[in-house]
Amino acid sequence: MKLSDEQLAVIQAPLGAMAVTACAGSGKTATAIRRLIYIRQLMKSSRGRVALLSFSNVAVDTFNKGFQQLAINLPDGVNLKRVEVDTLDGFFTSHVIRPHAHRTMGANQAAFLVSGSEPFLSGFSYWRDGSFPLPIAEFKVGIADGKTFFYSGTGDNHELLDQAKALELVGRLGRTGAYTHDLGRYWIYKTLSNQPAVLRALATRYPQILVDESQDLGMVHQEILELLIKEGVQVSLIGDANQGIYGFAGADGSFLRSYSTREGVSGFELTRNYRSLPPIIDLANALSGREDKPYREPQPGGLYFLGYKDAELERLFDRFRDCLDELGLQHEQAVILARGADRVAKLSGEVEPPGRGVMTAFTEAALLRDQHARFLDAFKLVSRGVVSLLEDAPSGLASKLLGAPQEEWMLRLRRVLWGFTRDADAGLPSSNLLGESEWHALLLQRIRSLLVHIQRDYGFASVANLGNKLSKRDLRNAPLNAASPVGKQGPEIRVETVHQVKGESIDAVLYVAKKAHIEALLGGTGDEEGRIGYVAVTRARNLFWLAVPNSCLKELRPKLVSAGFGELTNG
Ligand SMILES: Nc1ncnc2c1ncn2[C@@H]1O[C@H](COP(=O)(O)OP(=O)(O)OP(=O)(O)O)[C@@H](O)[C@H]1O
């Protein structure tokens, strides 16, 4: 790969804090990895480490793969052991929460993550006059002028909580050692603020931190980074403010936008889009007001719109598949996008997991594993299911298994449950099997032997009414993954929300939109709905199809044509 001058300028800049504003498809991944290695080279024999932090495990995997490839050819002198890639939450969990937060929380054991569904959390609900109690898992944390506050809801729909009441609940939960995802950030901030030695040690160990996708940094993450900056850490931000689509979660992109104007921070730009064909970049430029340049030469593909109605989605998908075949694009390299999870479920004709109670957990886990390769979600369900079959499991066991257990026996048990979840041949049976006869019989047999193993090695007996709990009464004698008789078949191309494909490059995108989404897309990146449209458009390498409801086709046609879309007529 021949790096551009802009990419090289970022990679080879002298040591120091930087703000890199980059367009979609500009090779942030390749640039960030090389910068990471270059920083470590500049640090010479210093013992300090460099961390590259991002938001998703997928991004971390991509960075790690790229890093491994480059690392092979590096001279021995580069100290690659002192280079780390992690998610922001993963990084702060291992360096702050797990080893140190319990002291600030007042807990007598290491902190552990709870998902929100644990029964014991019902004792930590926030009671409001004349309304339902708010579960503590719905508490969100903000920071203004260095003071933390608790709220619930999102965006304009948020509700500031009674701070004294909320703080009492958070503190009481903290004393048990438990924290929810959102409260984790609160405890990181509190731990670093209240234990200066921990902050100092972290800053000494990681004098250089790069944050990718930094438009998604929320208020609390920003304040955590500010603490490190004050302590001398050089923080570099890389991101694209036009792709900020987590405003509802408190990330408004302002940290990235203003960072380059700070004293001591150098600003850089990446303005060449390596991903998309020129017509797609023209639209992205028009939406964002940028003038990014294409790298690829024109070739068949581009931007098109067509009408659809919900009753005829199959026809829409057929046409899309035909077009992929004509262009020689693989169906696996294409995606169908929708705005929300409900819509995704409808478009993909998703199969409802059959069963009740613990059986639903196992059937859903098998479907998640086999239909979506969502192993972690499947593991969570299997863990909860299995723990609910144990007579005398310690309280919070399922949550501890999902978090980061420290006790050796729990780590072993977690490995056993992971093995059971992943292995369709010896563990959780395949969802291709007939539900009532084959799948259920195998599940029962394997769960029984798993429980025997757990009793022998860990001392937990299983519940008495196992047969009842694992009843097959809701299973049909059809493959578990077969649609119910009234259900639809799926489109055979993966269907995702726009948020799920953030960061990806995809050959062909079909965005099945509603009128409001199209208007927002055409309105540009000034607001979050517009940025969501922008993210959808800029995932596409060769082809972007916008499916427009027939009911508003006439009204939107002129705007779409003037934005550069070609129309695909019916027939
Ligand atoms: N110098 C280069 N020459 C050729 N291809 C490049 C170069 N730099 C990056 N690319 C390619 O550009 C594509 C897009 O890169 P990448 O996915 O890192 O974009 P990104 O900046 O993260 O985009 P987004 O923010 O939209 O997700 C990748 O296929 C990558 O291999």
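^ adenosine-5'-triphosphate complex. The longest strand covers residues 540-549. The chain has four domains: 5-91+192-273, 107-190, 278-349+490-567, 357-469.
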